[in-house]
Design a protein that fits this description.
The protein is of the alpha/beta class. Helices cover 34% and strands 22% of the residues. The protein has helices spanning 15-30, 52-68, 79-86, 107-117, 163-167, 175-187, 210-217, 238-246, 263-268, 275-288, 307-320, 347-370, and strands at residues 6-11, 34-35, 42-47, 73-78, 97-99, 121-123, 145-149, 151-152, 171-172, 192-196, 204-205, 208-209, 225-228, 253-255, 293-300, 324-329, 376-385, 388-393, 398-401, 410-414, 420-421. A six-stranded parallel beta sheet has the order 2-1-3-4-5-6, with helices on both faces.
Amino acid sequence: GEFTMTFCIKTLGCKVNTYESELIHNLFIRKGYVYSKDNAEVYVINTCTVTNMSDRKSRQIINTTRRDNKNAIIVVCGCFSQNAFNSGRLDEIDADIIIGNKDKSKIVEYVEDYIKNKRKTTKFYNMDEVEFENMELDSMEGRTRAFVKIEDGCENFCTYCIIPYVRGKVRSKSHEMVIEEVTNLVNKGYKEVVLTGIHTGHYVDKDYNFEHLLRDLVNISGLLRLRISSIEINELTDGVLDIFSKSDVLVPHLHIPLQSGSDHILKEMNRKYDKEYFINRIEYIKSIKKDVSITTDVITGFPGETDMEHLESMETIKKIGFTKVHVFPYSDRYNTVASKMPNKVDGNVKKERVKDLLMLSDELENSFNSKFYGRVLPVLIEEEKDSYFYGHTANFIRVKVSGNYKHNEIYNIKLSEENIVR
């Protein structure tokens, strides 16, 4: 038969990378390549650089992939390589094709070119000058939740964050394309769609904004759940919240990064709100959406953060009543404002603070879940493992049940301490 090459994609980092990797996967399949979990002939590593840990993992995966697959063609792309380019450290990456955050949709062409010419390729762009790279997913292998990337880039320049430097300026997919992509996914049988971007709430297509997009999407026939992967508090405008309160399609779950619960630290981070604004906004959101779950990200041990400010942060988190807190110890990123700040917090102090916050997160999660014991909620079944079925409620409580269930169907299930998975 025809000569077919095998490929494998390794993905680090955020939902945007997950989406982009899925797209690259589909492009390989379309060109007749065959997916292989190991011993593939082509490896694509889609990297992350959001923290030191991400760098370490990215580097590790590149090195072990190279070590274990001497003859494979290795492609490295994404934020880690873009950062290596920006900081003049590309020589640390051992790969045949190295690109950053542009041309991910051209990876198959780069690979075919390499097969022909056996020439190493390195191609980078100024990320502040690139257009939105159109990618359209028609399916996500084995998933019941489809991601749709609507936006790329960020211009907030929080002082700790490297992402604006590796992802570039805000740019968005045309709203016609977004609506078409979501419609196609729904017609393929997906019941839940997640809108994702580097700065999703900043979506803008000329005079058409995020609110307009939500209004159009919730009306797509057959779409049962629309989720926003992450949104900044000041982008939850009255217009957006109006749809949130009126539509059953927009799920009662929001991921809103707080980063710190201390006004002084928020200012130092160049965040665009103070804690009072955040607290009041959340109270309002809870008053307009029944059963709403609000999850968040917090950075602990930001330069100059005192014990008092750490305790203040804990108090703020309690007051807001998040369902869950994703905790990140602060780490210096190349050339950011915060990396040059004095009064760095000691590593062991950071470890202790991480522990405090994770304990608090557990308490909050238990108390949120316990409100639902004995209640019946619709659960979308997503996977089967060891004769149990797993799925999520609209407000993202993970549930495990045994019995006769079907993948990608919604069932009314009575929640209990036993069937809620943490």
